[in-house]
Design goal:
The complex is a heterotetramer, with 2 copies of chain A (about 500 residues) and 2 copies of chain C (about 140 residues).
Chain A lengths: L9 H11 L11 H10 L6 H11 L3 E3 L7 H13 L6 E4 L2 H4 L3 H14 L9 H13 L6 E4 L6 H9 L4 E3 L15 H20 L5 E3 L11 H17 L4 E7 L4 H21 L6 E7 L9 H18 L3 E3 L12 H17 L9 H24 L4 H11 L17 E4 L5 E5 L7 H18 L5 H10 L16
Parallel strand pairs in A: 1-8, 2-3, 3-4, 4-5, 5-6, 6-7, 7-8
Antiparallel strand pairs in A: 9-10
Helix pairs in contact in A: 4-13, 7-8, 8-9, 9-10, 10-11, 10-14, 11-12, 11-14, 12-13, 14-15
Chain C lengths: L3 E6 L7 H12 L3 E4 L6 H11 L3 E6 L4 H5 L2 H7 L6 E6 L8 H10 L4 E3 L5 H13 L2
Parallel strand pairs in C: 1-2, 1-3, 3-4, 4-5
The chains are: A alpha/beta (about 500), C alpha/beta (about 140).
Bound molecules: cobalamin (2 copies).
Chain lengths: ~500, ~500, ~140, ~140
Amino acid sequence: MNIKNKKLDLNEFMQIRENVLLDWPTGKEVNLEEAFVFQKSLPAHLSFSSLLADAKKNQYILIQPRAGVAALDKHIELLQYLQDVGTADCLPSTIDSYTRHKRFQEAQQGLEESIVEGRSLLNGFPAVNHGVSGCRRLIQSVKVPVQVRHGTPDARLLAEITLAGGFTSFEGGGISYNIPYSKNISLEQTIRDWMYVDRLIGLYEEQGISINREPFGPLTGTLVPPSISHAVAIVESLLAAEQGVKDITVGYGQCGNLIQDVAAIRTLESLTQSYLEEHGYTDMKITTVMHQWMGGFPQDEAKAYGVISWGAATAAFAGATKVIVKSPHEAMGIPTMAANAQGLMTTKQVVSMLKDQRMPLTQELKAEMSIIEQETRSIVDKLFELGEGDIAVGTIRGFEAGVIDIPFAPSKFNKGLILPARDNVGAIRFLEVGNLPFSDEIKAFHAQKLQERAAYENRSVDFQMVIDDVYAIGKGKLIGRGSKGEQQ
Amino acid sequence: MNIKNKKLDLNEFMQIRENVLLDWPTGKEVNLEEAFVFQKSLPAHLSFSSLLADAKKNQYILIQPRAGVAALDKHIELLQYLQDVGTADCLPSTIDSYTRHKRFQEAQQGLEESIVEGRSLLNGFPAVNHGVSGCRRLIQSVKVPVQVRHGTPDARLLAEITLAGGFTSFEGGGISYNIPYSKNISLEQTIRDWMYVDRLIGLYEEQGISINREPFGPLTGTLVPPSISHAVAIVESLLAAEQGVKDITVGYGQCGNLIQDVAAIRTLESLTQSYLEEHGYTDMKITTVMHQWMGGFPQDEAKAYGVISWGAATAAFAGATKVIVKSPHEAMGIPTMAANAQGLMTTKQVVSMLKDQRMPLTQELKAEMSIIEQETRSIVDKLFELGEGDIAVGTIRGFEAGVIDIPFAPSKFNKGLILPARDNVGAIRFLEVGNLPFSDEIKAFHAQKLQERAAYENRSVDFQMVIDDVYAIGKGKLIGRGSKGEQQ
Amino acid sequence: MSHTIVLGVIGADVHAVGNKILHYAYTQAGFFVVNLGVMVSQEEFVQAAIESEAKAIVVSSLYGHGEIDCRGLREKCIEAGLENIKLYAGGNLVVGKTPFKEVEEKFIAMGFDRVYPPGTDPKTSVDDINKDLASL
Amino acid sequence: MSHTIVLGVIGADVHAVGNKILHYAYTQAGFFVVNLGVMVSQEEFVQAAIESEAKAIVVSSLYGHGEIDCRGLREKCIEAGLENIKLYAGGNLVVGKTPFKEVEEKFIAMGFDRVYPPGTDPKTSVDDINKDLASL
Ligand code: B12
Ligand code: B12
């Protein structure tokens, strides 16, 4: 294995860079020195880092949508609407799936057809095709910071263009944008490509331009137990920090059980902080983001509002710095501008109403936090062990060994042995632990929790339980019970 | 004072009854013996008592809308829709304001105009005008129990007609449907008139027909501190029990601070139970109902969904037996059928998702419960003292003395000295305690809580704070802060 | 100048909260407020206006029957010799969420001078009243 | 009879959850399932159908690009000699919440035999497939 968690040599970086910029004609618009000047010229209210720091300090919760359409004008209109009507505190540009797979030619075709048809045929904003100048027009049309949100295994050109274009936050990572988002790309490849992205951001940091980095927390969005996503978030934070990233927002997708979710957000912040410090990255700014339920949604809009609100309430009780908002159209398709703003307004109402209420540190919460901590540490520590101290190497070996494993992931580089299911109060537990390096005690804990539920429902602990749980929220429940114990 | 908390003599009751039935021509349709037969003929799934008992036993939460239009056919259509599309577990018939004030002639006119115009000019269902036969047609058109919801100081004829008509639950009480709902009617009058209603229900109980009674918990719906509404609920339960009522659902309007709301629902049940037992009513069935936020709503529908959902979540965490649901049209007007069903569906999604999560009994919760208990007991015990053991007499004297006092009430029989405001985490405290018989310790507690907030907001504790709090939820906040500490 | 205005909630309507706040707001704004509270009949409004020599009647209706309750108020004022009195209405004037334009037209046709949609900030009307009464 | 069907998520789409559940459901229903997983090209679908002698191709598309990705699949099948193969499509086939009628027409016009709206229960299609393949 020819990889190391080591800051990329600047010359090497610059060599790779030449090729990266050739991937699509807009690459040649990027000039780093000029980009630094441009970023420095941006007003403070367009800086994601500043906004996050302010929210963390003053304990309010930022709300952010997902949004992106093909045409630049329409995309600007969309973001302005979400800012003005939706009262979004910060904005995204969600990138289309062709761009995510560097199929820039198909993206171009989709973009052109979209302009002709007057509706977006792409499921996001093709930032690379719009180039640096297009991005700058966008950034200068809004009043709040804008982040690149995507799902791109190789995001090097995308990062070059969008950062030069004035975006101040970049989502993703070598694991979180590979395993849930691709099939055949090796982790070695994506970790390496994301080192490039992080190194690039490090260069901006060296210029005093703080660019926020957000590992993608929810992974496959479907019943991911907190320790799994925490482990990934911590690894990606360590990798990013090594390349010079200073401002990190670690993420988590809401599970639905309040105590588990609060415990998850609290431990996510403390564990990340602690691993970074242990490894010598002491000047980091850490914040958290909670994603409202990322799995299947109910089709009915009124019901979707219920799910959205519960996500908002959870973020408030947990004290997340930011919450990513779903829309009432979630189950049906990419939301209209109006539906997207509605999700935001519902969320804003709830997070502002609950702003001053935090969950106190009860026995139950402590216990849940301790479980998550133990599990996360056993995974991350095992990765270090496998990598003989190198977390990049360890992570690749870890995925090979199934020591870290993501449920429902499409990637062939993921072992796919674990199965999650909900316990009798809806917390997500392990039905199959696969090769996760958990203690017998922890394994017994999960088995017992699921047994409790199975006994209550008078059924067996099996794959049907997993399926029922995958469908549950879409069908108006949290736990996919059989007939027993259900409200009609 | 010529009143006593004593079961009405049957002869006396029958004498009064003759006159009651003369109030409007439909009164003569009522034949008690025949009504018993009819009620007994109804299937179990139309019984409110049975449904509440099942929900309490199996720990799920019933959802119920408010709804009523003038014309019978339209009202039936409305209720069927709320049942089928809205998945309401139980139904209401909300009575129009003319009927509430026994202005049956105006109700008749409104009803006729409504039929002509093809839209409801009345704000509810004029059950008296529709008579026993109209009510029966209604009850037999639906699959779940139906309750009379109103706000009627003198509900004697309304009760006669609706109970004979097959309704199985009746909301209200001599205090809760007087002080918030009228201006010039004495408590002596309404308590007496409600003894009649309770006695009537007692007669049904004697026949083995259990009719559920629900004192109206939220009162003026606006920043009512829990101990105030608890005291009223307990008094009305005692009065009802004396007349032979056996099945009581005590109510409470959500305040918005989760711990306070959970504490309120838990203590409401335990205190009611304990007072009833202390006074010899030992075979009572007690359940609870929580009303989603009863004060001013935000006009925007997406924001209203947020408020509705937060109410649903609170009901679930508290473990209320039933939750009364608002609609996204709340701030604007009586909801359309569709908007009403939407509020229900949002609520159903949230209560079923959270069905298996209850708030554990933490230190914070215990402390809040203890405050509510102390306050409520000091009020109720003082009322017994003033009444020299008779709670009817004591209540009337208590209102005169301001020993019990309801904020923002229109009645001239209410002292109106107390003022509520939110503390720094949004719990409702007393800014003015008026003549409430609280210990110095409790008074100091409230003063200190509001001082804390005032210090945080750098303002003084005054009437402007109350106004700001009245507007707050409508404006997207829980606490009506000045500029300080607000999310923009 | 301290204008005298009559304030109240018309009909069988008991919504008292907004009325208490309007009372406070109008008093703060320097008006002399005759507040009849809730459940006020047309006759009581007219009587109070005569007795207090008020220049304006501010009617609230929240509960949905405003349309029925307000009909004829203008005529009663005229009969009582209050030809020039200004009539204002606000609140949730009709049953159900209704485009405000329709509601406004309806109430203007009934003889109201100004009509306000649900949840109007009292301040808005203070400015209007000051303007309207200055020209009397 | 154990029909062979080819299953996969077309294009650059990585939504894997529904695919895993469909695989399970179709296997339970007695089909022999050739599951190509996510990110499957038209060529791969056709190739797999030829190799496995499948009678039906079940295409999922969730991410919104279904419209672009599915164009020409019928033609590719015909070119490859699979004149009679049944084509099914389901998922969130187009970008945005769209009346299903429109989507259905679009995909039928492209040569699909049956089209399913978002969140269709796999069971629905099991019955349809059994019916359709019985008549072959
Ligand atoms: C989980 C999820 C993700 C996960 C996927 C993880 C993974 N690798 O599997 C993550 C977070 C990675 C993700 C990414 C993206 N997603 Co996504 N995702 C979802 C979500 C929330 C649930 C999907 C799911 O698993 N449902 C549960 C399973 C059981 O149901 P299902 O997938 O619908 O499949 C069932 C049925 O549809 C049916 N079915 C499917 N195919 C067929 C075929 C036939 C013939 C039949 C009969 C039935 C059938 O049976 C299946 C089993 O029951 C949906 C919205 C929703 N449904 O609530 C959005 C959604 C599908 N995603 C969407 C989008 C746009 C994306 C992204 C482009 C952008 C983004 N938001 O980041 C990327 C795409 C990446 C890519 N290249 O594909 C959109 C698609 C929009 C559209 N069509 O207009 C949706 C609808 C959300 C939205 N409203 O915006 N997503
Ligand atoms: C609290 C409340 C109650 C309390 C009232 C307690 C009390 N005695 O005061 C209770 C629970 C008792 C109650 C009862 C009823 N209510 Co109610 N209630 C409300 C609620 C939730 C808030 C009202 C409030 O206090 N707002 C806060 C104050 C500050 O605002 P406001 O009242 O709107 O007043 C302000 C403005 O409107 C404006 N304003 C008012 N008048 C005027 C006039 C002028 C000229 C101007 C410029 C401004 C102005 O200034 C005020 C101060 O800022 C509203 C819905 C809402 N707004 O969210 C329903 C609402 C008003 N109620 C309604 C109804 C139907 C009823 C009932 C008939 C039935 C029922 N649901 O039980 C009974 C009626 C009883 C009766 N006979 O009147 C409906 C009216 C429907 C319609 N118009 O189509 C509403 C809109 C709810 C709904 N959507 O169904 N209610």
